[in-house]
Amino acid sequence: MNLLPLAAVSALLHGYIGIRLVPGLAAVPPGQFLMMGVLVLSALLMPLGLMARRVARPPLADTLSWVGLLCMGLFSSLLVLTLLRDAGLLVLWLGNLLVPGLLPLAEVRRASAEAVPLLGLGATLLGFLNARRTAAVVRVDVPIKGLPAAWQGFTVAQISDIHVGPTIKQRYLRRIVDKVNALGVDVVAITGDLVDGKVSELAAHVAPLAQLQSRHGTYFVTGNHEYYSGVQPWIDELRRLGLTVLLNEHVVIRQPGSSSEAGDASAALVLAGVTDYSAAHFDPAHRSDPEAALRGAPPAAVRVLLAHQPRSAEAAAKAGFDLQLSGHTHGGQFYPWNLFVRFQQPFTAGLHRLHNLWVYTSRGTGYWGPPKRFGAPSEITWLRLVAG
Q: Does 1 score more than 70 pLDDT?
């Protein structure tokens, strides 16, 4: 999108907030001027933040991104709260038509106009703190029917949707890596949307991934943002760092001392990965295919699929997987967008069942866009296989 149309839309939406709120702040004139100043600055800076890489180079581009995305977070809360306020005032107005004098509408209008900026700022500050903290560990037991004793307690650390880019850099990622390493898991799974930018810009900031530790390695599948950022250079870079990138492929994991005889299903765990659900729109050769990911796989005690989007679940269930690990949704990231994710994805967050398939959807380990998480905390997921 070009800067001018984006600026026009931004101006219109900020203007709506101003028209609806500023008159209600007449009792506190400094509040009126402050509100108008914030809205004007936000209307100008938000589009620049979104287009920063097109209008400037680092470090100025990163500074513009930071300021613009902070404005976006505040704007989002102000817009939603203003819409809710208007809906409430409409209901009260209709009530007063039916029963005149039922409620002091002028007083409610004034008090609500003063409350919206305070609530918006509070939600933005709390969301910022939630987004910038290191993700908490969420522990999940996944019951697998008929799980052999050899695989009881097998653990996977899943990280997803970190979005290394303008506001997430090396230090943020290093804290995540340190926390994952402290878990001492069997496998680390990265389920896409790792980056927002080119290898030339972000290679140094992704480098901490080379320090990830587990008994059987680190595995990565592409998300849609890898395709926005230049997928093949990122695949090459991640492989250089020692990660195994699964492009409609699988690996076979065997426990030390277990039998490797052909046909002994209890001896193997198949870990597969597919390209992003939308990958074919960018490269037809990358069409996501869970069945292809299993091609040539031996009989196995458990079949686990890494797939960025939960939408892969129907095909994964048909292919015969037991567990799918996904991300993409961010759990909605902040209210009210969590209410709309379900219209695009079958699952928003957590562990769900689809036919014979368990699907775990991570809320994400970083964030995208505004540094803000409200009602959808980030997570590092510790998953353990147990007999079901």
A: no
Per-residue CA distances from 387 to 156, 190, 192, 353, 356 (Å)? 16, 24, 28, 16, 15
3-state secondary structure of 94: helix
Of the chain, the percentage scoring pLDDT greater than 70 comes to: 98
- Which one, of 333, 325, 345, lies nearest residue 377 by Cα? 333
What b/e string do you get for 267-288 counting C-beta neighbours within 10 Å, with b at 16 or more?
bbbbbbbbbbbbbeebeeebeb
Instruction: Give just the sign of the alpha carbon dihedral 37, 40, 43, 49.
Output: negative
**Do the beta carbons of residue 151 and residue 301 sit within 8 Å?**
yes
DSSP 206-251: HGGGGG---SS-EEE---HHHHHS-HHHHHHHHHHTT-EE-SSEEE
Rounded distance between C-alpha atoms, residue 176 and residue 364, angstroms? 12
CA distance linking residue 71 with residue 7, whole number of Å: 13
CA distances to 186, 204, 214, 243, 312 from 155, rounded to whole Å, are 5, 29, 10, 18, 22
Burial 12-46 (b: 16+ CB within 10 A, else e): ebbeebbebbbebbeeeeebbeebeebbeebbbbb
- Side-chain-facing half-sphere of 253: CA atoms under 13 Å: 23
CA 279 to chain CA mean position, Å: 18
Token reading at 348: 């928003």
Kindly report the pTM of this predicted structure. 0.93
Could you give the CA distance from residue 270 to residue 252 in angstroms, rounded to a whole number? 5
pLDDT digits (tens, 9 = 90+) for 242-301: 999 999 999 999 977 665 555 577 889 999 999 999 999 999 999 999 999 999 999 999
Q: What number of other Cβ atoms are within 10 A of residue 230's Cβ?
A: 15
Give 12-26 pLDDT, tens digit per residue.
999 999 999 999 998
Strand order in the sheet with 357-361: 249-253, 269-273, 302-306, 323-326, 357-361, 350-354
Dihedrals phi, psi of 205, to nearest 5 degrees? -80, -20
- Structural domains of the chain in order of their starting residue, each with its CATH number: 3-132 (no CATH), 136-387 (3.60.21.10)
Contact (Cβ atoms closer than 8 angstroms) between residue 212 and residue 187: no
Beta bridge partners of 188: 157, 218
